[in-house]
Every structure is written in C-alpha cells, then in structure tokens.
Amino acid sequence: MKPPELTYIDLFAGAGGLSEGFIRQGFKPVAHVEMDANACLTLKTRAAYHYLKANRKDEIYYEYLKNLKTDTNKNKTLRQELYSHIPKQLSDSVINKEIDKTSIKQIFDEIDLLLNRQQVDVVIGGPPCQAYSLVGRARDPHGMKKDPRNYLYKYYAEFLKRYKPKMFVFENVTGLLSAENGFYFESMKCAFLDSGYEIGHKILNSENYGVLQTRKRVILVGWQRERKYGYPDIQKIENKWQVSDLLADLPPISAGEKNTVEKYAAQTSEYLKKFNIRNGLPFVTQHEARSQIERDLKIYREAVAKMLHEGKRLNYNDLSEDLKTHRNRESFLDRFKVVKPDGLSHTMVAHIAKDGHYYIYPDLKQIRSISIREAARIQSFPDDYYFEGGQTAAFRQIGNAVPPLMADAIAKGIKKIF
Q1: What stretch of H or E contains 222?
Q2: What's residue 2's pLDDT?
C-alpha cells in the first residue's frame, strides 16, 4: 500500500522558499497563509507548476512563461488562463490574509474546509523578521520595541493548538535570540511549551546546504511532547562551488534592460546541474536589472574595480566628493557592495527591493546591480520559479525567502524522523 501523504501548513509563507523544500521531500501543502498579495500570486503560480508537472501537463506552464510580457495587465490575463488548469481547492489553498486577532478565526475556517478532517503533520513558517533583526533595531528610533510583529509568534502558537501537528518548524533571523535581551525568544519558547511541544533550536548557515550564500538563521523545531522525536539530523554537504558557477550561463545585460524571456548564453555548470537550478527550461525568465542613475553607475564601477583588482570592499569615504550624497559618513560605509564572484555571496535581504547598491554585479563589462534571476539563483531558487508582481515585488519576495536548498535539508531531516 502507498504510505499516506505527509501534510503541512505554511504560515507567513512569503514566496514559498521553505515550502518548496518540503514539497521536494514529498510533503503535501494543505494551505499557505500570506498577507502580501504579490507573494500569494507567486505561490499560486508555483502550485500550478507542481500540479501540471505531476499530471504531465507542464508544457502549459512553460507556455505561460514564454508568453509573459513586461505589460502586467497582459500578464494578468495569461495568469488567469494558467490558473484555469488547476483545481479550485488548490487555488483556494493560498490564503491572502494577514494573521492577526481579527482574521485568525476566518483563516481557521478556510483551512478546516481544505483539510476535511485530515491530519496535519507539520506546521512551518516564520513571521516577518524585521522586528528581530539587528539592522531593524538600529534604524528604528524605538529599537523595534513597539513593533506589533514582535508578538506574531503568539498566533503561530494558536495554529499549533488548533491543528496539533506532530512537529513544527519556526524560522527567523539570529537577532531573535538577543532581541530585548532574549525576552521575545524566551516568551516564544514558553508559548510553544504551553501548546504541548518540546522544542530545540540551532543556528543553521545556508552555505552548508548547497546555497552559494552565507545566511545564518535560527531554526526552531518543536515536536509533540508524547512523541519524543527530538531535533532532526539536518545533514550538511561540502560546498566547493562559488558565485561564478551561478552566473556564467546568463546572457549579458545592461542596467534597466527588461527582456522577459531570453536564451541561455552558455552551457550549464556542474553546480547548476547538481542542484537543479537550471532545470530543463530552454530559456530564462526575469533576467532583468533595475535602472540606475549615472552617478550610481560610476560608483558601481569603482566598487567592482576595487573588488576585482584588490579583493576589497569599497569604503564610502573613499569616493570623490562629487559622488557622495549621504551626510552620514560614520556608519553604513559599505552601502555599495559587490557580490563576490570567487566565493559565496553575502546575505540576501529584502532591502534589495529598494535599490541594488548592496548587490552589484561583479563584472566591469556589465555595470549594474544583479538581476531578479541572479538574486533568485543566489537564494537557490530554480530557474522555472516565477515571481509575480513586477520587479520590486520580485526582489522583495526573494530577499525575504528561505533558500529552497536549505529548506530541503530541513524537510529531509524531519521526513527521516517520521
């Protein structure tokens, strides 16, 4: 007999990076709950991909990608046509709502209908991390103490009480451990213990799971007290690759260039093949870089030259006066940062949606910030993963995501326990 499917609910789902890892390990999503409308469209589009692929109709999805335009109104029509090929329940499983005290009952009702008395094996997700991040606290005049997102874990605990999963995975930034001198983390652990779970946590670095990026995150795992599971064994792998292995096959582009669909410029690399990043598509989408003013491009050129010739980061104070516009000359002096080609990328964050200064492409022949597709690859998203909502929305979703390769390792460890 075929074993029963392992099910999960994804809270604060974002663009689905954590979910993608669980799907790869054979888990079935019951619901994704996310407040951002564009991220919900991305989740639906990805759900359509998985459904069509499972039913050997993936050509419908590939045609959707081929026909995408820079005109978002036309894309809306194409998207509706794509969604017409998937069951209504699958479309309904993406719940576009903010989780708060006014919405939680309605979210429960919607999930109950989707479940139809089915058991939930795992709850996954992590609330927005800005309230716990060190940068967020540094920039907020109140140190994020008044931010309501500090307490979103209480709603997470309500989902645990309601659906009683065997295990849960709670992901967040390392700043969670020190926020308010550890108060929030201790309160969080108490809430999860009161919900009936034993818990453990570790700081995991995405570079240990095949991701070409240094990205440390707290991964808190809980299990029903009576099951005595323990923290999963999350296997590390040797990472012998570098960022240049991610970029070489993509066609050269200029700042502001928007070609929706392009052909690859070279053969795939060992890395792209091994980790299924370039996964069968004969073309690449969303390889577009944001527009930049001439002054920023001059700064980019200096930053790239310093990185390639000296192996050093640009210090803002080293720029000529005509290129300096910021009054603050004492902090954030690395505000123009090149992605290191012969190593791992620095951490991808949501700020990439505001400008590209922190993610400059490492080539003097292409003075620009990285493209959407390059950012997605650094986060280990495969090339057939499409981010809906336009350029800014796509960058925000990518910057906030859990790298799918890291999520895959976590899901594999949990599946082994089951």
Answers
A1: strand 216-224
A2: 62
C-alpha closest to that of 132 among 119, 105, 150: 150
**How, if at all, do strands 197-205 and 216-224 pair?**
antiparallel
Are 277 and 377 in contact by the 8 Å Cβ rule? The answer is: yes
Q: Report how far residue 44's alpha carbon sits from residue 415's, in angstroms, rounded to the nearest whole number.
A: 25
**pLDDT score at 146:** 53
Laid out side by side, the sheet with 122-125 consists of: 94-96, 27-34, 6-11, 122-125, 167-173, 216-224, 197-205
| Residues 367-376: tens digit of each pLDDT | 999 999 999 9
Three-point CA angle 215, 8, 275, nearest 5°: 45
Let me know: does 249 contact 285? Beta carbons within 8 Å: no
Euclidean distance between the first and the last CA atom of the chain, given in angstroms as a whole number: 17
pLDDT tens digits for range 219-271: 999 999 999 999 999 999 999 999 999 999 999 999 998 877 899 999 999 99
Catalytic: 129? Answer: yes
* pLDDT reported for residue 10: 98
The pLDDT of residue 65 is 94
Between CA 403 and CA 21 the distance in angstroms is: 8
The H-assigned helical ranges of 116-168 are: 134-139, 153-163
In Å, how far are 25, 164, 173, 204 from 402, measured between CA atoms? Answer: 16, 24, 11, 12
What span, in angstroms and rounded, lies between the C-alpha atoms of 332 and 319? 14
Locate tokens 């292409």: which residue? Answer: 366
Tell me the whole-structure pTM to 2 decimals. Answer: 0.92
Strands 27-34 and 197-205: unpaired
pLDDT reported for residue 69: 76
- 122, 123, 129, 393: which is the annotated catalytic residue? 129
Query: Which residues lie closer than 8 Å to 128 by C-beta, 6 or more apart?
Result: 12, 149, 152, 400
Answer whether 37's CB lies under 8 Å from 98's CB: no
pLDDT below 70 — which residues of the chain?
Answer: 1-3, 70-72, 129-150, 328-332
Residue corresponding to tokens 């499409």? 386
> Topology of 6-234+399-417 in CATH?
Rossmann fold (3.40.50)
Domain ranges of the chain: 6-234+399-417, 244-389
Per CATH, the homologous superfamily of domain 244-389 is DNA Methylase, subunit A, domain 2 (3.90.120.10)
Interatomic CA distance for residues 170 and 4, integer angstroms: 24
36 backbone dihedrals φ, ψ, rounded to 5°? -80, 125
